[in-house]
Amino acid sequence: MDMVAGMAGGEGRPGEATPPDPLARLRAATAARRAAGLGRVLRPRTPDHDGLIDLASNDYLGLARDERLAEAAVRAAREWGTGSTGSRLVTGTTTLHADLEDRLRAFTGAARALVFSSGYLANLAAVATLGAGGLVVSDAGNHASIIDGCRLSRARVAVTPHRDVDAVEKALADRSEEHALVVTDAVFSVDGDLAPLRELHEAAVRHGALLLVDEAHSLGVTGERGQGAVHAAGLAGYPSVVITVTLSKALGAQGGAVLGAPEVVETLVDTGRPFIFDTGLAPSSAAAALAALDIVNAHPDLPGQARRHAAALARACADRGLAATDPAAAVVPVVLGPPEAALRAAAVFAEHGVRAGCFRPPSVPQGRSCLRLTARANLGPDDLAVIGRALTAVAEMKVNV
Asked: Where among 298, 325, 359 does a domain terminate?
């Protein structure tokens, strides 16, 4: 037996005490998660989602498979190569990145934009950099990337109850720190509800704080032309508002961005570690996002189609006695309770030809495991009929959970 392998299994040399197994705690924790129905498995899919109707992805406008995006990405890969070749501050900024930043700025109404290789990194950079040394006030329902940004900021963090403006106001009023950052999802990634952005902005302004809004699930979906929840709330271009976006959801590409005042972008370029030390977004992804913006501008009805389909899904749930809230954008959660119920419901959906997201703790609180249905602009009547039959089967299953 190999000595290293033997010792890893808990075997030592003759006459010596057996060293502790460093993997034992990981095996025990994995077994405990599996027993609680919280184990996770990677399931590779085919290009057509294994023949299932896709209600699990974040492809809200149905652009991820659009030939115009694919052709733009291919042209960029042939011209620029398959990667950006370096960090944004070295060789990773191309004219495509500059064009994309200008287009995102114009689309959202922001003063400046800075593109990242993912929306997750955009949130990490914005929260950690802008919140450093101060107070960060974060909604309890915020995405994990915001939570991780709070941790990296080393700021004092006040987590406020979901959508509770009074709690945000109190946290800001009671602070001793010189500066503060209020951070919230625009549309929350699981519950699908909308943050009270105007009220949060008023509270932030009263106390000299910045408001950072994550538009991951609202860009391309919320507002008359899909320009996002900040734009729809009449806050576009306010210097006290910072926006983060992802390009991998409604825009069907890859990457993220931070948008805001020139001071915000300059600070991130100078000091934002997730920006400085990361390889730039691949040119092909930048080109695909640019093509998506062209389509959204040319077809302003797409965001409304996604929202209408989400409303139809919510009505179908309500008609069958399933707990679903009215969606603010394209996310429709169906709360089922224990993890086992959500897993079974996802399996029932698959049996009926539909792929649905299955969310369990720690992605959601205990007792709120759910199916997350994500509407798409390009769902057809036949798709909605199949989804209705799957919901009926879940409603019947729910009685026995």
From this structure: 298
